[in-house]
Amino acid sequence: MNAVVLMWNPEISSFKMDDFLNGMKNFDHFGLNWSVWEHKKVHQYDRFFMVRVGGDNTGIVMSGLIMSDPYKGKDWSGKGREVYYVDLRPSVMVNPDSDLLMTTEELSAHFPAFDWIGGHSGRVLSEEDSIKLMNLWELHQDEHLDEFKNSLLAQRDDDDIDPIYKLYCMKAFLKDYAFEVHTNADEGYDYLDDVSYCLTLNNADGEELFIDLEGEFTLSYGGWHTHYFASNSEFECLKEDIISILTNKLGAVTLLVNGKLFGSSTTPSPITNKEQAIEKVRDVIDNTREFVRKVHRKGVEVSCKFWDRKLDSVVVLAPEEFPLPKSNKKPIDLRPHYAFAYYMEGAMFQNRSLLYYNRKEKTLHYLYEAGISYMDDRKDMERTVTISDENAKALERCFGLMVDAVNADKNHWDVLDGYECVLICGRRRVRFDGPIFEPPFGYINDIAGHLLEIMEDWNQAEFEKTLKSVPNITDKLERYIAENK
């Protein structure tokens, strides 16, 4: 990626000052082409810098990406010369009459060998000078950030996160290390788009570290990975983490349950005993109830990988060695003497909902216990309503079919969708986790899930409307059972 310097003198150019200002006003849809002198050195996705010359206020007024390889076109000056053009996508435009330009005096001080006030338009800087100019331009924007006003500056949101520019920044950052750069043309990297890159580094044992530069940044090592927002500050965090890994100040932690990846994290030092392993597991799974029970029931292998593999460690927690947390919640009685019951427990935030019908009292009961989610401001509550025998029988039949539908399903309900559900009808019961919108769970949610919402925020009319839909759901459940036997 080169930096291509374009010269613009509005006094003699076919691109006038009014054209520039109109481009700022219509920035989101603005594009243009420009002639390049060193067309054999210019390539698509090079970075361009447009410098205003020929007046009192001279300096960089525009920067962005070159969106095409050079192509021959008609001479803009009318002199019949052989002229090559490129298409430009501006990322930043600065009002040429403002005092926010990076001036030609500053540019000459940093690059004394380059003619910044004359010469041909479309000259290419060396790779070293290209990176230097890109860095200086970013610093200039940061220093004047508070001074920029809409009338003085037009800027795309993604200017600071140009992956091509970041590639060159990363290459300069890793100049003391051996690395490879991959594009979507390389086998195994087809997930990258045309202007995204992956850099890989190998340690002495062949373990790879991956750095993806896309619309966001991703760092992967030893089964662990993390994402960074596409911004300059996050890019600096990415570089800090890379150095921490390469200098063994940060290692990758993976949790394996039955040989399958269950979670990942990092550690500043090897994990060498079971107390440290338990603490790290708690940190990774964040006391999520379903995950805690699975680790307790099946055990877990806690593996640490460092860049220097001599520091690696493995600690195995056997089944039941990972302790279950003590719960301050009373168990909910789900004995089958109720006509039906529907119980949901939030695996992530430990909130619980129970809906059940008491045949003897002809009452529908609702119980909600709040969890630990900062996103859920609901409080513990209970509600009881009386329903007719006719509606109760319809619901009881519907719940019975719900249980049969789940039992008839050929798929195992392994997909954790945020809730663990228990359905009871008479002495039949089923416990499952499943995708909330797919049958048969979708049918169950149409009735039971909707009833839970209504019972929380009571609405008699909505309640009656939901009960009227029971026959329709019953028909769907019967068809589903017949199709999946």
Describe this structure in words.
- The strands form four sheets. Strands 1, 2, 3, 4, 5, 6, 7, 8 and 9 form a nine-stranded mixed beta sheet that branches. Strands 22-21-20-19-23-24 form a six-stranded antiparallel beta sheet, with helices on one face.
- A hairpin with a 2-residue loop joins strand 23 (419-425) and strand 24 (428-432).
- Mean pLDDT is 82; it is low at 412-418.
- The two termini are 61 Å apart.
- The protein is built from eleven helices and 24 strands.
- The protein has four domains: 3-155, Roll (ph1033 like fold), CATH 3.10.590; 163-246, no CATH class; 251-317; 340-484, no CATH class.
- The chain is of the alpha+beta class.
- The protein has helices spanning 17-25, 104-110, 127-143, 163-173, 232-246, 274-285, 289-298, 389-408, 441-456, 460-468, 470-484; strands spanning 3-8, 32-35, 47-52, 59-66, 71-73, 83-94, 102-103, 123-124, 153-155, 180-182, 197-202, 208-213, 217-221, 224-228, 251-257, 260-267, 300-305, 313-317, 340-346, 352-358, 363-369, 381-386, 419-425, 428-432.
Return the CATH architecture of the largest domain: Roll
Percentage of residues in DSSP E strands: 25-35%
- Rg from alpha-carbon coordinates: 32 Å
Largest sheet: 9 strands, mixed
Class by SSE composition: alpha+beta
Basic shape: elongated
Q: How many domains is the backbone divided into? A: 4
CATH fold-level name of the largest domain: ph1033 like fold
**Count the helices. How many?**
11
